[in-house]
Write a structure and sequence with these properties.
155 residues; 9 strands
């Protein structure tokens, strides 16, 4: 191996799958402009997506997450990581500023043992957000079917 972490390999796998099987969606890891111009402070982090898919006036930003757990606990309630939610929210809001069309976002977690969360979607401030799990503990046809279903969200 070339030193890539499991998280990075997961990101690369998803991006390369879409490049090979859904090339007309222009899959890429894209940098999103902060929209500040030259006055952006140097300390602002780069906004680099794991996977961005675009079909005409629709864009889906996928943030791939490969952790031991998907849901955390806050006051005895299972919740998604606020940091992960804030990251995809920021990506979508900034991308929408520069994209003439519908921008949506997805947190795509590698499925973990005992994970109850499979697929959820919601509308927030005019944008659709999704949380999905990708079950890597199956044959490739099953993995491909899950990734294809995500691409089909772009209609």
């Amino acid at each position: 191996m070339n030193g890539d972490s499991p998280h990075r390999l997961y990101e690369k796998f998803i991006l390369e799958y879409y490049r090979k099987h859904w090339s007309w969606l222009h899959p890429a890891a894209r940098e999103i402009d902060h929209g500040i111009g030259d006055s952006a402070p140097d300390f602002l982090p780069r906004m680099l997506t794991d996977v961005t898919l675009a079909n005409g006036d629709k864009c889906l930003i996928i943030d791939a997450k490969c952790y031991g757990t998907i849901l955390g606990t806050h006051y005895d309630k299972e919740i998604l990581s606020p940091a992960n939610l804030n990251q995809i929210f920021s990506y979508v809001m900034h991308a929408a500023n520069a994209f003439d069309g519908e921008v949506s976002g997805m947190l795509l977690y590698a499925k973990t043992e005992g994970a109850e969360l499979e697929s959820e979607s919601w509308l927030e401030l005019g944008h659709t957000y999704h949380v999905r799990t990708l079950d890597l503990n199956q044959d490739f046809a099953g993995i491909a079917a899950q990734l294809d279903a995500i691409a089909e969200l772009l209609g």
